[in-house]
Amino acid sequence: MPRLTEVDRHRALGLLQAGLPISEVYLRMNANRTSIFRLRQRLHETDTVSDRPRSWRPRCTTQRQDRNLVRNHMNNRFLSATASARQTRERNNQRIGANTVRRRLSTSGLRARRPYIGPILTQRHRHQRTLWAQEHAAWDRIQLRNVVFSDESRFCIDHAHGRVRVWRRSSERYPADCVREQARWDGASLMMCCCIGSPRRVHTILAGACLDL
């Protein structure tokens, strides 16, 4: 049965104070008979309907270990929680779990996300890009009309080009409805190229591309 909320507890006590028996109160509240009985007993003993303080399981890591976990993942952003858990021992010299590492990192504001996929850039590439941006930061609209920014992307036609999951049992690896059929060399794909710039400049480039075809 569902756990009674704070409002439901006060409502159940109100029904009891109105003279209704416990057998009728727990049916109306959709609760256990013992829960209603203990609720009334707790009110007489503690003068409140709130839960009593409980002794939770102590933390298996120290504050120093928590700081080390955050520092390790800040130094290596692609370090997995499972690999980090293997390197950390709790107070009784037992290994901690990966979920413990995730909770410690989550407390520090770190979340596991899909990384941004970008081009490989050396230090020289980064320096040249910074210089280009600084040199052209003060350009006006008239100067920018002669500039076209282009980019290209590849789209797979046969299947989704990304991480795919299949819901199956441990013994259902080879059934036809659990197998992802894929052509060799990743199948057919389509390369698209787009550009952003002055309308007159873009039209000239597209006309030249049509003539080449």
Automatic annotation (TrEMBL):
<feature type="domain" description="Transposase Tc1-like">
    <location>
        <begin position="66"/>
        <end position="137"/>
    </location>
</feature>
<dbReference type="GO" id="GO:0003677">
    <property type="term" value="F:DNA binding"/>
</dbReference>
<dbReference type="InterPro" id="IPR009057">
    <property type="entry name" value="Homeodomain-like_sf"/>
</dbReference>
<dbReference type="GO" id="GO:0015074">
    <property type="term" value="P:DNA integration"/>
</dbReference>
<dbReference type="Pfam" id="PF01498">
    <property type="entry name" value="HTH_Tnp_Tc3_2"/>
</dbReference>
<dbReference type="InterPro" id="IPR036397">
    <property type="entry name" value="RNaseH_sf"/>
</dbReference>
<dbReference type="InterPro" id="IPR052338">
    <property type="entry name" value="Transposase_5"/>
</dbReference>
<dbReference type="InterPro" id="IPR002492">
    <property type="entry name" value="Transposase_Tc1-like"/>
</dbReference>
<dbReference type="GO" id="GO:0006313">
    <property type="term" value="P:DNA transposition"/>
</dbReference>
<protein>
    <submittedName>
        <fullName>Transposable element Tcb1 transposase</fullName>
    </submittedName>
</protein>
